[in-house]
Design goal:
Elements lengths: L5 H11 L14 E3 L2 H12 L11 H4 L3 H5 L2 E2 L13 E6 L10 E6 L2 E4 L7 E2 L18 E7 L9 E8 L3 E4 L9 E3 L1 E3 L11 E8 L8 E8 L3 E10 L4 E11 L6 E8 L1 E3 L14 E2 L3 E5 L5 E5 L7 E8 L3 E5 L20 E7 L4 E8 L10 E7 L9 E10 L9 E8 L7 E7 L13 E5 L9 E4 L6 E7 L6 E10 L2 E2 L3 E7 L1
Parallel strand pairs: 4-12, 20-34
Antiparallel strand pairs: 1-5, 2-6, 3-7, 4-5, 7-8, 8-9, 9-10, 10-16, 11-16, 12-13, 13-14, 14-15, 15-26, 16-25, 17-18, 19-20, 19-22, 21-24, 22-23, 23-26, 24-25, 27-28, 28-31, 29-32, 30-31, 32-33, 32-34
């Protein structure tokens, strides 16, 4: 079983419990020639037929408890390409429990695809916990993980996991030194829509056998759902960061009026801005703490995440975005004081669109949550114009899992909020910017730009923070009877940006 934590496992399961039923795909029988064009052709042919839901695994597999499911462990000695000189091994996940519908998996060697049948013999069981399970019916693996040599000096040659595909179109990866955290998806449909979200599924995978010294791994996936089919190619290179180059071809069955491209899913429970709502010894609990964007004009924007009391959807209108992603900037153990979850090691995930993505908006969905097992944050690119049924949509983008991009400008490293000191009416906002060469100048050499479309703010005070070596900006505002206030702040010097643009939505 993967080293994904129980919390991360349950996060995936909480999303899967809402999934729409997904359809079957024709299995590759025996061996046949393979190319990405074949996956595209399969997706196109599938889109021309009515959607048909795939069968679930037998009931006794679904009735397993969490502990029973976890007691059946994959035997890494029986991994795909184990005991060979290939640079990657592939482990498989059991179906059942939250993973109702198995996927088809194929290995590709020398341009020829061969199906990998389900084999319960690849798994080890626990004599006191593991149940006796039926062996008839639509059984198959629920996903897989990738392992390769990540340069562990203490264990030379050991193949360590760094990437998992399991559940709907979910996948996650880590950079060297990270723990698993946020996830990506192939596609999001109708996220936060009143009629409910649709979850497309990867139904078939093709894994290209790597050479002995090959650094990257190629994974192909066929996606299907009631509204769309798709063919995906992932060119995955582990390291710091772990980089995935993604090619996706979509064939809408229906008009896609609310499609989310390159969707990211994460968790934000609390930090210093809302800690008062949680009786918890830890100062913060989150997989990500902000949405970072570099828009088509080259402007860098930072939006701290929130766990709102009501559903929030924010849209940042743009044309051909240069990048966006969910970041984890809190990187000290003391930021979380959690010796088990190690939130300070969770990866950031940066999306770099390739080609013309046109007009649309980076969309941020923040869902109220009371427990850290729930993924309550979603971010994606939403095209302005719907994708019409019967058309073909080609997309290319890069995903980078790790510390996040270096965009030159001083980053926001903390946001704090509270009542004004001495009991004066209103709210105080405090923004800390990291240490940066530009801050060798004196605080009075910077222009402070603070604005809100809803009210007047104070002018703001900028001073050096001796603890961080950066600058701290503080300002106040009085919301009065308002329950929602949008805020924007930035430092400028000699007419040019001297910091990211800080965006914040204050709510009661």
């Amino acid at each position: 079983m993967s080293t994904i934590s129980r919390r991360s496992f349950l996060q995936t399961a909480s999303a899967l419990s809402l999934m729409a039923m997904a359809p079957a795909a024709r299995a590759t029988t025996g061996s046949e020639k393979f190319s990405r064009a074949d996956v595209v052709a399969r997706a196109k042919a599938l889109a021309e037929r009515p959607f048909k839901a795939r069968s679930s695994v037998p009931d006794d597999w679904l009735a397993m408890s969490y502990d029973q499911y976890r007691s059946i462990q994959f035997d890494v000695d029986k991994a795909l390409w184990a005991n060979t000189d290939r640079s990657y091994n592939v482990d498989f996940f059991l179906p059942g429990l939250y993973f109702e519908r198995p996927v088809l998996v194929h290995a590709v060697e020398d341009g020829v695809s061969t199906s990998i049948p389900f084999d319960i013999g690849r798994f080890k069981t626990h004599p006191e916990i593991s149940p006796e399970l039926s062996q008839e019916g639509p059984l198959g693996y629920s996903g897989f993980r990738l392992r390769t040599d990540l340069g562990d000096r203490d264990h030379p040659g050991k193949k360590t996991e760094f990437c998992v595909f399991q559940g709907a179109s979910y996948f996650r990866a880590i950079a060297n030194g990270n723990n698993y955290g946020l996830s990506a998806r192939g596609l999001a449909l109708k996220t936060a829509d009143p009629e409910g979200e649709e979850f497309p599924e990867f139904v078939s995978f093709w894994l290209e056998a790597p050479g002995p010294l090959q650094d990257n791994m190629l994974v192909h996936a066929l996606m299907d759902s009631p509204s769309v089919t798709g063919a995906y190619r992932f060119d995955i290179t582990p390291g710091n960061p772990c980089v995935m180059d993604v090619e996706a071809t979509l064939f809408p069955r229906k008009d896609l009026t609310h499609a989310g491209l390159a969707p990211l899913t994460s968790m934000f429970l609390f930090d210093g801005t809302n800690h008062q709502r949680f009786d918890d010894f830890r100062p913060a609990v989150h997989d990500s703490d902000g949405l970072l964007m570099k828009n088509g004009q080259g402007e860098v924007l930072w939006r701290p995440l929130a766990n709102p009391t009501r559903l929030q959807v924010s849209s940042f209108v743009d044309q051909n975005p240069m990048g966006f992603g969910l970041m984890q900037r809190a990187r000290k153990l003391s930021d979380f004081a959690d010796l088990e979850a190690h939130y300070h090691r969770r990866p950031s995930l940066w999306v770099e669109p390739r080609g013309d993505w046109g007009a649309g908006s980076v969309t941020l969905v923040e869902i109220p949550a009371d427990k850290e097992i729930y993924d309550n944050i979603v971010a994606y690119w939403r095209p302005k114009d719907p994708y019409a049924a019967g058309t073909r949509v080609d997309l290319n983008y890069r995903l980078s899992w790790g510390e996040g991009p270096k965009l030159d400008l001083p980053r926001v490293i903390d946001t704090a909020s509270g009542a004004k000191i001495f009991g004066d009416p209103g709210r105080l906002m405090v923004i800390d910017f990291e240490a940066h060469p530009i801050f060798e100048a004196a605080p009075e050499d910077f222009d402070i730009h603070i604005s809100s479309p809803h009210l007047e703010t104070s002018a703001g005070i900028l001073e050096r923070n001796p603890e961080t070596g950066g600058m701290r900006l503080a300002f106040s505002f009085d919301p009065g009877e308002q329950t929602h206030v949008e805020l924007r702040a930035q430092l400028r010097k000699d007419g040019a940006a001297a910091s990211e643009v800080w965006l914040y939505r204050w709510t009661v």
